[in-house]
Design goal:
This protein is mainly alpha-helical. The chain contains 1 helix and no strands. The chain starts with a helix and ends in a 7-residue tail after the last helix.
Length: about 110
């Protein structure tokens, strides 16, 4: 009878080892599943952040384009104002020359 118990005990020990290996495998698989889920969540977060960066970049590009147009308009307005000021200064200079000429001319000289 002792001989019959040894194979059964050996089988029981082997079965226990297989059960422990299966449990370890199951635990490792669960850890991998958890890691895969965390990876999926991180991937989704990174994709959302990338989309946000793309939207911000597009908004900045649009703002830069608007600023460029505003700068061009401001330069054009400044050029118009300077041209107007120059015309006024030329008119005043011509008027000054005319007044000086009138003052220096002979009062009896009528032309």
């Amino acid at each position: 009878m002792f001989n019959d118990a040894i194979p059964s005990e050996s089988k029981r020990v082997k079965a226990e080892r297989v059960r422990e290996a299966a449990e370890t495998t199951r635990e490792e698989a669960e850890e991998l599943r958890v890691l895969a889920e965390k990876t999926r969540v991180l991937h989704e977060d990174l994709r959302a952040q990338l989309d946000s960066v793309r939207e911000e970049r597009e908004a900045l590009r649009h703002a830069a384009e608007e600023a460029r147009h505003a700068t061009i308009a401001a330069v054009a307005a400044t050029a118009d104002a300077l041209a107007s000021n120059l015309a006024q200064m030329q008119f005043l200079e011509d008027a000054r020359k005319t007044v000086r000429h009138v003052k220096s001319s002979d009062p009896g000289d009528v032309r």
